[in-house]
Amino acid sequence: MTFTLDPDYSADPKLQDLIAQLRRYLIEELIPYEQKLGLTPETKVTRAQLEPVWHRSRELGFYGIALPPELGGQGLSTYALCALKEELTAHGSVLSHSVLGDMGGPLRAGSIMQYATPGQLEKYLMPVIRGERACCFSITEPDAGSDVRRMRTTARLDGDEYIIDGGKVFSSAAPFADFAIVVARMDGEDEQYSAFLVDLDAPGVTVRDGEIPMSGQQIEGDIDFVGARIPAANLLGEVGQGLRIGIGRINMNRLLHSPSIIGAARRAWTLSVEYARTRIINGRPLIQFQAIQHKLADMATDLYAARSMVMATAAKVDRGEDVSVEANMCKLFTAEACFRIADEAVQIHGKAGLTQGNEVEQLFRTLRMYRIVTGTSEIHRNAIAKALA
């Protein structure tokens, strides 16, 4: 694919048309909607503000677009999905995470569809696909992040119910979700974990506001379970499949997070070019100085390398090939390269780039997080090295 900052997918007319439709929706509808509500990346959004986005995105065919047609999607390829995800974050939309259903929607739940019973699909997952309910995924605990096997949340069978005790943190979408996919250790078993569908309004379940990350986004929550009873029918998959369900989803997410990171870095690059063209220093636009031109060139080169790696890996997924190593490589390189881009964007903006409320400053904080969230760069290096040893 020839490098352009605004990607050209003319070799694939269907994808090119989808990209054009998405850009139109973002520019003509979603961003004006956000501006009317006064939303910023640090606004604590409400369910009432999100539901119109879910419904409109579904009307346009974007919400859950990657799902198979029998589940209401278009069976979109991973390659095309990555293209859409980059485009979403490249335009600076606050609610871009809700257009495809990343935040509480079909993409959040999509990977677990294969484990769900017909009853679970009908009660929990199909309403998510229709934009009627929202879900979150809860596996991380205060002492069980990269090492998930240290989790202390337990589940034990009591008649026709499971009793869950413990707590989860950093559950994205928890503040407005209806239910959670919870991974817990089976009580009395050191190495047996299972996944459950847990209604967040059930007795014994409490959702608390999570800590606000450095990005300022208030989209995470902590969940406490104190003798929470859930029907045995809410076991997802089989007993002992919890880590397969959870970690399998995480591996794919490492790839699918990458185009969103690239889009945010592309946004930082675009803002830097605009600033350099209009900022006058000693009678000349900043962009005429070679030092600035070299920064922009390095930023564009990192974008090209990251995008090429991600799209090549996405194409491998579509061919049915294993990408467990490549997914770690994509997340590692993308997180590191895109943070470099954000750092240079701040440098180009000077004092303005250090000012709270400046979009580049917020992008810098957001992109710094991705060197840690969804797997630290060190964890990715460990996984890559282990596979190559």
TrEMBL record:
Pfam families per UniProt: Acyl-CoA_dh_1, Acyl-CoA_dh_M, Acyl-CoA_dh_N
Keyword terms: FAD, Flavoprotein, Oxidoreductase
GO molecular function list: flavin adenine dinucleotide binding; medium-chain fatty acyl-CoA dehydrogenase activity
SUPFAM superfamilies given in the database record: Acyl-CoA dehydrogenase C-terminal domain-like, Acyl-CoA dehydrogenase NM domain-like
Residue ranges constituting the Acyl-CoA dehydrogenase/oxidase N-terminal domain according to the UniProt record: 16-132
Cofactor: FAD
Listed EC numbers: 1.3.8.7
Domain Acyl-CoA dehydrogenase/oxidase C-terminal: from-to ranges: 240-388
GO cellular component assignments: cytoplasm
Domain Acyl-CoA oxidase/dehydrogenase middle positions: 136-211
Protein origin, superkingdom: Bacteria
A GO biological process held by the record: medium-chain fatty acid catabolic process
Similarity remark: Belongs to the acyl-CoA dehydrogenase family.
Protein name: Acyl-CoA dehydrogenase
